[in-house]
Design goal:
Elements: H1 27-30, E1 43-45, H2 50-63, E2 67-70, E3 89-92, E4 99-103, E5 108-112, H3 117-125, E6 129-130, H4 143-148, H5 156-159, E7 166-172, E8 178-181, H6 195-198, E9 207-214, E10 216-217, E11 221-228, H7 232-245, E12 250-257, H8 258-267, E13 281-289, H9 292-295, H10 304-318, E14 324-327, H11 331-342, H12 344-354, E15 357-361, E16 364-366, H13 372-386, E17 391-397, E18 402-410, H14 422-434, H15 450-456, H16 459-472, H17 487-503
Parallel strand pairs: 1-3, 2-3
Antiparallel strand pairs: 4-5, 5-9, 6-10, 7-8, 7-9, 11-13, 11-14, 12-13, 15-18, 16-18, 17-18
Helix pairs in contact: 8-12, 13-14
Length: 504
């Protein structure tokens, strides 16, 4: 039967860093980034290597102790936050931040799961290489969490999600066994691709302790431009034009509408607008160049890639697809623009805190790109009919069809809107489903969306997920209450049976 940690001495594990039992030391680990989920933990453990993680999980498995794995604690769905029972232990991977191997010739790097994403960027870029995963939380999120949620970010259009950037994993299973599938091989057809079971599993099947990542050549130049497309429809047409000229060189294609800029101006100090006026429908674009012929001035003193972009923009002006545009003159201008985009989540958080707003319903959805305009029209009609005072703040990765579609309510709304309005969310997801989209694009399921997963996931697929969970984690100790809804009941039954057997 489940034992409390009052009856168990975790110090017998002889970890290098003693467990944190004092509740005063727990706040950083038991509250989620959004401030929506607040839990309790019996202890915080900080292993320094895979062997310590294995020892902790053997201990937890033997004593039926719930385990919540945690990286940078940047989840927007409550995936790394324990419940309020106080029975769970949190395994923070923050001390596991070493480079295992760096193979420049193979363009791979093997790192431990606690390495911060921005640190990986710095390490490989010093060697003229590039790891394309890029998120607003890159300064605090850790690669283990990125893998556990199959994070997306701004470069998915060209490089894919984190899953596409991972060649191999080291994983500690719920019973403490270590599965080493670290590999630099681009081709390996020796049976099932087991690593992909754990990528996107949000710590419910085991703990990722290390990963071999795919690197790329660092571009000689990235050209950043910002255009005003006036409408979503024109922005989609613009994307298709750029794909025709730069089929394999579009790094990012980000939608930043007027409402995005209104929130940004309210919450970012010394913000500089890229255009003379607030854009109605802005698009931020990165184009990469790898050739000296593209990036070196010609006889006229023109940089060929910039000249090509100017010609494409001129064509778009003639087709009335855009009404204004600017090309960043240097890296500082580019960084300034991208800092605004990357601060989107923080800006929304501040908007809630400083305004008379009581709740934000966050939706991380993906749609076929050609359906986004129709979806938006349907969604706005539904939201205005649901409650006219609601405000929609949306933005996202237009290039890969991922929108962050967030609905705010103000202080004058009825009390019934406080908390997650499941009815409104369900109606929005019905529209997403109508256009063959997904209710979770890159943020995962966590606590927030587990009911939606059960509703919208194919029945056969959902059943298979439960089978995999039961086989790998029969005691249900790994990140309980996340992703799959039914396991709470299963765990209760298991505990009762265990108690009855122990009584004989």
């Amino acid at each position: 039967m489940q034992q409390t940690l009052l009856d168990i001495d975790l110090r017998t594990l002889n970890l290098k860093h003693p467990p944190l039992f004092n509740k005063d030391d727990h706040s950083k680990y038991v509250n989620d980034w959004r401030g929506q989920y607040k839990g309790q933990a019996a202890a915080i453990l900080k292993p320094i290597n895979t062997e310590e993680v294995s020892a902790i999980l053997r201990f937890a498995h033997k004593n039926n102790v719930d385990v919540v794995p945690q990286g940078g604690n940047t989840s927007l769905c409550g995936a790394a936050t324990p419940d309020n029972s106080g029975r769970s232990i949190i395994i923070s991977l923050e001390k596991m931040n070493n480079i295992r191997q760096f193979n420049k010739a193979a363009q791979t790097i093997t790192v431990e799961s606690g390495m911060v994403l921005s640190q990986i960027h710095e390490i490989v870029e010093n060697e003229n290489l590039f790891f394309p995963l890029s998120l607003g939380a890159k300064g605090s999120c850790m690669i283990g969490g990125n893998l556990s949620t199959n994070a997306g970010g701004v470069n998915v259009l060209k490089y894919g999600n984190t899953r596409e950037l991972c060649l191999g994993l080291e994983v500690v299973l719920p019973d403490g066994k270590i599965m080493n599938l670290l590999s630099e091989l681009k081709k390996d057809n020796t049976g099932y691709d087991l690593k992909n079971i754990f990528i996107g599993a949000e710590g419910t099947l085991g703990i990722i302790t290390a990963a071999t990542l795919k690197l790329f050549q660092l571009p000689k130049m990235i050209s950043t431009l910002f255009v005003e497309a006036d409408s979503i429809s024109n922005a989609i047409k613009l994307l298709n034009v750029f794909k025709s000229y730069f089929p394999d060189r579009i790094e990012s294609f980000e939608l930043m509408p007027k409402v995005f800029w209104e929130v940004a101006k309210n919450n970012i100090e010394k913000i500089i607008l890229p255009l003379e006026k607030t854009p109605e429908m802005g698009v931020l674009i990165d184009i990469s160049s790898y050739s000296k012929d593209d990036t070196s001035p010609n006889e006229e003193g023109e940089i060929p890639i910039i000249k090509t972009i100017e010609n494409v923009l001129e064509e778009c002006f003639e087709k009335n697809l855009i009404s204004d545009a600017t090309i960043c003159k240097n890296e500082n201008q580019s960084k300034s623009l991208w800092s605004i985009r990357e601060a989107a989540a923080e800006s929304e958080k501040k908007e809630l805190e400083k305004s008379n707003l009581i709740k934000c319903l966050k939706h991380d959805i993906s749609l076929p790109v050609e359906s986004i305009d129709d979806f938006h029209k349907d969604a706005q009609n539904m939201i205005s009919n649901f409650l006219p005072k609601l405000r929609t703040i949306y933005f996202g990765h237009l290039g890969d069809g991922n929108l962050h579609y967030n609905i705010f309510g103000n202080g004058s709304l009825p009390d019934g809107f406080k908390g997650e309005s499941q009815d409104l969310t369900n109606k929005l997801y019905e529209i997403v489903h109508k256009y063959n989209g997904s209710f979770s694009a890159e943020h995962g399921i966590g606590q927030l969306k587990k009911n939606n997963l059960k509703t919208h996931k194919n029945d056969v697929a959902y059943s298979l997920m439960k089978i995999i969970k039961n086989q790998l984690d029969p005691k249900g100790i790994m990140n309980p209450g996340k992703v799959l809804f039914y396991l709470i009941i299963y765990l209760f039954i298991w505990c009762v049976l265990t108690y009855l057997l122990d009584s004989f």
